[in-house]
Amino acid sequence: MRKRYRIEISQNRQDHNVYLPAELMHTMPLSRLSFGSRVIEAKCIPHNKEKIIVGESVYNSLAIPGSEAVLHAFSEHDTLFIGPLIGVLTSGFTSYPLRPLGDRTNIFAKLLSVNKSVGVVTFLFGEEHIDWEKGMIKGLFFEGQQWKTYEVPFPNVIYDRLPNRRSERRANIKKVKERLQTDYLIPSYNPGFFSKMDIFERLYQDQQACTFLPETHPFTSFSVIERMLADYGHVYVKPANGSLGLGIHQILFDRNNNTYYCRYQDNAGQKKLTKFNSLEALFKKIFHKRKLSNMIVQQGIHLIREEGRLIDFRIHTNKDEDGLWQVTAMAAKVGGHGSPTTHIRNGGKVMTIEEVFRNRKDQEKFAQSLSSAALYLSTALESQVEGIIGEIGFDLGIDKEGKVWLFEANSKPGRSIFSHPNLKESDLLTRKLTLGFGIFLAEKAIKSPEALFT
Question: pTM of the full predicted structure?
Answer without folding.
Answer: 0.92
